[in-house]
Amino acid sequence: MNTLVDVSLCISLLPSESSFYGADPIVENNERLYSKFGTFFPFAVGNKSGILDASVYVNRKYISQKAIHVELVYFLTEIIRQKVYDHAIIDAEGTEYGILPYFYRGGQFDQNDITFCQFNIEIHMPDDRKKEMFREFIFTLLRESRYVMLRAIRVDHYRMYFLNFANPYCVSRYVLEIDD
């Protein structure tokens, strides 16, 4: 993935008053890259906090190494301290499965009054158990009619883009103008 291009493109598409926050356990290069746009945090973000295994890209290959992880809702509510996010780019290198239910109605984001207007997520090659989690994620989002998947591409993994069509703020900001 060309992170610089992805981040630059996403930043250019967001409203000018948007802020950028990037979290990655690999400090080398990422701190310099993310700091050009906003604030960098030198840890992984996922569904639990602790010193956990992380799949990291080092010397042109992925390796497993211990890294500090911060639970996603804690990161958003206690560190970033915002409730509404214009856009999230989620690339958790295989640990994304644990946060998929956060997006469901009544999930962790709803329980903490967190709104995403749009998000990109990478789904890394799953085993049979993770394939079922992914299937459940897609069908749950379809049933709940909050997010619509507008794009899905497959490279070495799946990259998907979702837009929140249920939140009036998100719709007026990114889809069409709504009179209050």
TrEMBL record:
InterPro entries per record: FkbM_mtfrase
Q: What is this protein called?
A: Methyltransferase FkbM domain-containing protein
Query: Which residue range or ranges hold the Methyltransferase FkbM domain?
Result: 35-147
Q: Which Pfam families is this protein grouped with?
A: Methyltransf_21
Source species, please?
A: Heligmosomoides polygyrus
Looking up PANTHER family in the UniProt record yields: METHYLTRANSFERASE FKBM DOMAIN-CONTAINING PROTEIN, UNCHARACTERIZED DUF13 C.ELEGANS
